[in-house]
């Protein structure tokens, strides 16, 4: 609401925020609510003020610029995505000429490009994570489109390992994807908020606190209706401005989740993928969602905060391991692919041996024939040189054709 109200003139803005201030008092709501449990924060709790604001936005013709709300009237971090479908994703099947594009995204939600950013940053043609061309190159970075991050992210190989399921390659998130535009110019096209109000971009640039200047985070604002949200993986160094805004009493280790309890093959890896079949079998990623809080004297809730603060809303650790039954299927698939590979090699070698055998056999037959012709040419009445020359020419022709 604050972002969208930034487009209003001073008088209209004062009226809008005055209304919001009265509503927060009426519904006894606050930005910092200490009466919410972790379960409610994730799965949702009833918030009459949000439903009231949604109706107001619809009346003012702003419904397309406000987030979708749950039919249950509850609001939470995953209240809309829990038990829901994502997509649809249109991907290449790998059939015939698309073999090298197996699992690559064609379109997401009916679109072939994003419309949040500028130029190449709207590209989404990459793997969606589940399938990749086989076998994978252990020395190359992988690209993956991540809808939650609204962009393509990269995975850097950290080593190869022999696991029960087969030879695997471990990967880690590339820190360049989370770097500021100053430290990674390739990220500059992410700085444009093409779908939101101009005031949002201008304000962020003035405060110098958006993804254009912050390291270690991705700004979700452009693809989240301008919401002041940042996402940061624990494996990437967080910008000092964010850490300093948390205060000296805050322990940054809280952003790293619990101790790693699954075997990830090495300390650096976050994703482990089987080399031959290209299937991920393990993953362990911890991310933190931050809210950027900007002081606004008109809005009572932010009148007394520092000019810019970053509040950690939730830290989520996502771990994935393959169940034993599925692991056995993958092992069988690995063995089958290995078997077919060896069969192809044996068939190829057999064909080569057979070709050489046929060539040699054909050569022996033709040599015997030319030898007879040479003997006949040496009989009385024949020219010796001419016969030998014809025999040599015939042998060369036979060898050439063979």
Automatic annotation (TrEMBL):
GO terms for cellular component: cytoplasm; membrane. Its main location: membrane. The chain crosses the membrane at residues 345-365. It is found in: Membrane. InterPro entries: CD36_fam. It comes from the Eukaryota. Residues 372-402 are annotated as: Disordered. Keywords: Glycoprotein, Membrane, Transmembrane, Transmembrane helix. GO terms for molecular function: scavenger receptor activity. It holds the Pfam family CD36. PANTHER family: GH07959P-RELATED, SCAVENGER RECEPTOR CLASS B TYPE-1 SR-B1. Belongs to the CD36 family. This is Sensory neuron membrane protein 2. It comes from Aceria tosichella.
């Amino acid at each position: 609401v604050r972002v969208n109200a930034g487009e209003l003139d001073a008088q209209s803005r004062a009226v809008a925020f005055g209304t919001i201030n009265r509503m927060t008092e009426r519904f006894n709501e606050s930005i910092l609510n200490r009466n919410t449990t972790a379960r409610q924060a994730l799965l949702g709790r009833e918030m009459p003020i949000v439903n009231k604001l949604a109706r107001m936005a619809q009346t003012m013709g702003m419904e397309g610029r406000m987030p979708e709300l749950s039919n249950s009237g509850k609001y939470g971090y995953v209240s809309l995505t829990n038990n829901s479908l994502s997509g649809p994703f249109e991907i290449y099947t790998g059939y015939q000429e698309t073999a090298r594009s197996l699992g690559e995204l064609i379109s997401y939600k009916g679109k072939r490009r994003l419309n949040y950013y500028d130029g190449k940053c709207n590209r989404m043609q990459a793997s969606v994570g589940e399938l990749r061309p086989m076998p994978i190159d252990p020395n190359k970075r992988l690209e993956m489109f991540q809808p939650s991050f609204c962009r393509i992210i990269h995975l850097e190989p950290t080593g190869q390992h022999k696991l029960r399921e087969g030879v695997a390659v471990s990967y880690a998130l590339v820190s360049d994807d989370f770097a500021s535009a100053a430290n990674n110019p390739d990220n500059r096209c992410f700085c444009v908020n093409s779908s939101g109000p101009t005031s949002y971009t201008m304000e962020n640039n003035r405060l110098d606190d958006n993804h254009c200047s912050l390291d270690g985070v991705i700004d979700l604002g452009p693809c989240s209706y301008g919401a002041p949200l940042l996402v940061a993986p624990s494996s990437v160094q967080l910008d000092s401005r964010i850490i300093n805004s948390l205060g000296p009493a805050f322990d940054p280790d809280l952003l790293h989740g619990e101790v790693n309890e699954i075997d990830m093959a090495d300390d650096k890896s976050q994703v482990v993928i089987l080399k031959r079949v290209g299937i991920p079998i393990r993953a362990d990623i911890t991310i933190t969602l931050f809210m950027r809080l900007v002081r606004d004297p008109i809005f009572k809730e932010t009148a007394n905060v520092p000019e810019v603060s970053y509040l950690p809303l939730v830290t989520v650790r996502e771990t994935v391991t393959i169940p034993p039954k599925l692991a056995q299927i993958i092992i069988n698939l690995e063995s089958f692919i290995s078997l077919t590979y060896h069969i192809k090699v044996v068939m190829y070698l057999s064909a080569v041996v057979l070709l050489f055998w046929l060539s040699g056999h054909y050569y022996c037959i033709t040599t015997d024939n030319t030898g007879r012709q040479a003997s006949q040419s040496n009989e009385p009445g024949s020219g010796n040189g001419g016969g030998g020359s014809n025999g040599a020419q015939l042998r060369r022709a036979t060898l050439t054709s063979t």
